[in-house]
Automatic annotation (TrEMBL):
Molecular function GO terms recorded: methyltransferase activity
One GO-annotated biological process of the protein: methylation
Keyword Repeat: no
Name used for this protein in its record: Methyltransferase family protein
Alphabetized UniProt keyword annotations: Methyltransferase, Transferase
Source taxon at top rank: Bacteria
Signal peptide: none
Species this protein is from: Murimonas intestini
Statement: the UniProt record of this protein carries the keyword Acetylation: no
InterPro entries registered for this protein in UniProt: Methyltransf_25, SAM-dependent_MTases_sf
Domain (Methyltransferase) ranges: 41-136
């Protein structure tokens, strides 16, 4: 799982079409449905901290984990600006460590898709289960097989802004169910010249049957799956789904 490097500097610019407030409202609604309010929550793959800040603003005590120092640097700038008490940790979600347990773990914006092997994903789920309070909630989203196969695979996306531009080339490998992203970024620097940066990322598509099996093998209880931002079951053409699971095994005090 590669960390964002140069792309971190323009990530928020090109993600300004993402309705983080809507995403945050949806996540908060699901957390509150399971009576998780005003308590300690961990976000895995927090990136530049946009959702972390939103949840902190809604009263949650937030911990954010990401393995990209460049993304976390921007998250820290947001923290200094907002004055919110958020703890950021630079860790790989495949081997993260906390000092104690949390009431919920959330992971959005397809961070889980960056885990490209079932064994590693099972390990992530096991760690989540370990660091959740008894009966604690795990809430995460996934890009679907349909999205990679029908919408992203072998597609080129380009966007041009005044200060930066990018070309995003996708190659989907159906046998492995892995999507390769080749990112070419042009960033304007002092003097008006543009510098070129290149990065390659990989995401894996997971079918819901596999996710459910891996959660259960990790000791968790599968609770539900929804078509993104609804309470409806995933459809054949769902592009993003949300999965809810619970900690299982710890004794309540």
């Amino acid at each position: 799982m590669q960390a964002y490097t140069s792309f971190a500097r323009v990530y928020d610019t090109f993600m300004d079409n993402v309705p983080y407030e809507q995403w945050g409202e949806y996540v908060c609604g699901l957390l509150e449905e399971y009576h998780i309010r005003d308590t300690l929550v961990l976000e895995l793959g927090c990136g530049t901290g946009s959702l972390t800040e939103y949840l902190a603003g809604r009263g949650y005590d937030m911990i954010g984990i990401d393995n990209s120092p460049d993304m976390l640097e921007i998250a820290m700038e947001k923290k200094r600006s907002s004055g919110r008490d958020i703890l950021y940790l630079m860790q790989d979600m495949r081997e993260f460590e906390l000092y104690g347990t949390v009431a919920a773990v959330v992971s959005v914006c397809d961070s889980i898709n960056y885990i490209t092997s079932e064994d590693e994903l099972r390990q992530v789920f096991s760690l989540v289960n370990n660091y959740l309070d008894p009966g604690g909630l795990f809430l995460f989203d996934l890009n679907t097989v349909y999205k990679y196969e029908q919408l992203l695979g072998d597609c080129v996306i380009a966007e041009n802004r005044e200060e930066c531009s990018f070309i995003w080339e996708n190659s989907y490998f159906p046998e492995e169910e892995v999507n390769e992203y080749d990112l070419t970024i042009f960033m304007r620097e002092e003097g008006g010249l543009y510098r070129k940066y290149e990065e390659t990322h990989f995401q894996k598509a997971y079918r819901l049957t596999v996710i459910r099996r891996l959660l259960e093998e990790a000791g968790m209880e599968f609770v539900a799956a929804y078509d993104a931002f609804t309470k409806e079951a995933p459809k054949e053409d769902s592009e993003r789904i949300y999965v809810l699971a619970r900690e299982k095994g710890k004794q309540r005090k």
